[in-house]
């Protein structure tokens, strides 16, 4: 009996050792991996391009990295406004290791393909700035979110800038004194949801205030200064001062329009030779033009706030927290989109 009890005791010890030690080793290895992952979270940011506004978002993310040394590492990839280039970037990233993916889409219809490509990695995907045409694929993944703005709000604020100018000094705007605001619309892209919302809401806001409008032309400048400059230059030769206002979906295009007008001696400070131009983004260059009186105003969206939001939400999801944990943000009725507010930027000089 003694021998058999000893054998049982020995066997029990062997079993305990065989179970506990491997489990301890696994836990220890996992702890080390988690520790390493906690030290530096790799975030790949795929950008539509590096226009002025997106460049400011990038700079803000770089500042976040600097302020969180060793905690996060951003890698930036410029798609140069080309979907084929962006697809190639995604192909390369599938072979890399990343913890969070930030996506500024070129083609707003390809969000489902992006999610399917990276689904196997089971990582957070934060779309930003350029809203996917449908948010349903993001919801189905469970780790994908969108951070941007309410484009309708930006159009309304643009409209209010025009309304205030019109009410304060209609004759300075209504150059032919017919009581109608004749304008040219510069859209970002033909198929961009945000551009369409801005375009509709700015005009509806102006008309709701009792101002009659007439569209002379509507052009798509692809958010590009040069394209806007070339188009407005040609349109000025056609319409001249019949063109009483230029409404642009973005500051880069608004600045291009101003450069074209200045070539013909307009928008150089003389109020009698100024065509109203409004934009969106309130970039530093646009702010300078507004201060000088060359540009009427812009709608401000804070690039640093956008960078902060996509960083915090991405990190929260990566760490297994609620996406909006310890943030002031709220989801809209989709449950997966955060809409950051806009503000006006106009000259205080009258």
Low-confidence stretches: 17-37
Tally of contiguous helical segments: 12
Average pLDDT level:
90
Sheet with the most strands? 6 strands, parallel
Helix content: 40-55%
According to CATH, the homologous superfamily of the largest domain is: Response regulator
Distance between the termini: 106 Å
Order the strands across the largest sheet as they lie in space: 2-1-3-4-5-11
* Strand and helix order: HEHEHEHEHEHHEHEHEHEHEHEE
Number of strands: 12
Indicate the proportion of strand residues.
Answer: 15-25%
Q: Specify the CATH class of the largest domain.
A: Alpha Beta
Structural class: alpha/beta
How many domains? 2
CATH architecture of the largest domain: 3-Layer(aba) Sandwich
General form: elongated
Question: In the CATH scheme, what's the topology name of the largest domain?
Answer: Rossmann fold
Rounded Rg: 27 Å
